[in-house]
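From the pipeline queue, job 12 of 40. The input is one protein chain; the requested action is below.

Action: predict structure.
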Amino acid sequence: MCADAAWAARSAGRSVLVLLSPEDVLATDRDPITARTMAHLYLSALRFDFRCPALQRFVEHLARTARQPLDCYTRALYAFALLGQSRPEGLTVMDEVLVEAEEHPKTLHVLLHGLWLGQDLDQGAESLLALSSRPALAIGTDPIVLFRVAGALRRLGQYDEGLSTIDRAIECLPPGDISVHADLVRERSLICAARDLHQHRSPTRTSSGVPS
């Protein structure tokens, strides 16, 4: 619910970050459920703004000051912050979160987002494809999952499969949905450009099979 609320605010040109300050979120006079809700709203807003270093610092501060251990979703957001900075320790945190998260879709989406953003992660694209194959994500009709998978396929040089996947993602968008349409079209252009560049760089061969 908190991720959806933060996304809806951002899509409307607003932000939870304008309404909540770090001091609001860290206040100690709230019951645990309210405190967790405030943290999820604030951290989700940082996530959608790609403020990975700020998100990392805030969760580390929470871990030092919270009255109880951090919940699974907050730790998933921490993994996102590390993965988004291509920090390998993010993969370790992700694996720990997956043990507890099992097939919770929102948590898996947070981790998938981090792998998508962490372009310099070792085996990052392969990890993204593995995560996308989990039952909660492998439904084949989620445009966001397909969008992230297409990006991973592009990074692996699987351009035709990437194009097929991004075209499927565009088809799965609800009619009139403009919230992520531009991102999907941009990814399609990137795949085409990468494919064309790869074909241009590949040496042409003579009839004997020897590069000309």
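Job complete. DSSP finds twelve helices and no strands in the chain.
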